[in-house]
Amino acid sequence: MGTMAGKYCKAAIGFLLNSFSNRRFFWICVILLSAWNMTTIFLLMKNRSDTDSTSIGVTTSYLSWINTFPAVSLCLSKNRITKEFSEAVKRRAANNQSPSYTYIRTLYDYLFINPNNLYLKEEYCKDLNSTCGVDILDMRKELFASSCTEFMEQIYFSEKLLPNCEEIFKFHELEMGYCFLANNLIDYPENQPYFNALSYTITSDPSVHSFNVEGIDNHHDVIDEPVSQRMCKFDTETNDNKVLYSFSSCMSEIRSEIEMKLCNCTLFNQSEQNPLKYCGVEGIVCLDKENLATKVKSYVGSNMVCLPSCMEQQISYVGSREKNFNEYGDSIMVEIEITSPPTARYFRAVTQTKLDLVVAIGGVIGLFTGASLLNILEIISMIFSKIRIMFKN
């Protein structure tokens, strides 16, 4: 076996020596090998430019930062049936008949309907119109607060009493119902509450909710990179000019589209609020049977249709605790605090621009051809000189 292997090795070496004795064949092999290496490196650089042109890092130079407070949203939620609501139902009863408790309870559930809670007893709305015998949107306007002054007594920010809550908490009608959003204190696009967002219930006990916040800073040229590379969107990158982009607004839009496809109605559409498209009792029962929330989350997760906002803060929940406050009497006190000032901030930067790609390609070509742009220009000049001499002769 050893003798046979030695013979094969000698034969291979002899073939190479004989082949490379021909200088033309030798240079053809060198050029082909160089071209193959150059093409491989070029493809690697092009792939990196297409898939990894941005990076996220962490900076700790927090002394120069201006920290922003995150958005705070208060949405009205269902509690006990009030006397005011019962009287409003009685005023709408046909032929001045006294409505049953089950009917009042059904309307109360309908009043607070949202994608997280689609429970409604359809049997108590038989022989009535599509919205259970009343104009449910009109009842909301009549019974729900549309100004924070109707339920907020005092509001403090940074331990300073603010004279008017309406300067902070703006009223919005959203998929989660009637909400009041404190977003004008921050520099980020309005991030609306949506069905899959984390929420915390306000109770009668004074409570403090603690969070930590980490911001993200984008270099000025990040917005010029394709969305597929940075995997996030800026607020202006939206299909609807009426609504700034955020993850929550995207989720709300997808939910509305899926509702229309499943049951031909919607609980809320941020672009077009058409009462005729609002879900009646049959529509809500349809959405409940179709398992709406699960289908929306599954669709968004599998298709990557809602990318995070490029300016979205990273908010982590620390915990909640009760606090002894006797000075407020029967009023409800809620405090939201940032546990500690952030000591780190994320930043998104472009690591490879188009110019970097051009320079890298030029370097690779120069490496494997042994020529620079000046050499190429000299060769072109020499060719033109030869042609000119030929024509003169």
From TrEMBL:
Q: Which GO terms describe its molecular function?
A: ligand-gated sodium channel activity
What is its subcellular localisation?
Membrane
Known InterPro entries for this protein?
Answer: ENaC
Please give the start and end residues of each transmembrane region.
25-45, 357-384
| Pfam annotation, one family | ASC
The Gene Ontology CC terms held by the record are: plasma membrane
- Does this UniProt record's set of keywords contain Transit peptide? no
Is Transmembrane helix included in the keywords of this UniProt record?
yes
How does the entry describe its membrane topology? Multi-pass membrane protein
Keywords for the protein's UniProt record, in alphabetical order: Ion channel, Ion transport, Membrane, Sodium, Sodium channel, Sodium transport, Transmembrane, Transmembrane helix, Transport
* Coiled-coil ranges per UniProt: none
Tell me which family the UniProt entry assigns to this protein. Belongs to the amiloride-sensitive sodium channel (TC 1.A.6) family.
Q: What is this protein called?
A: Uncharacterized protein ppk29 isoform X4
Source organism of the structure: Drosophila pseudoobscura pseudoobscura (Fruit fly)
Q: What is the lineage of its organism?
A: Eukaryota, Metazoa, Ecdysozoa, Arthropoda, Hexapoda
Gene that encodes the chain: ppk29
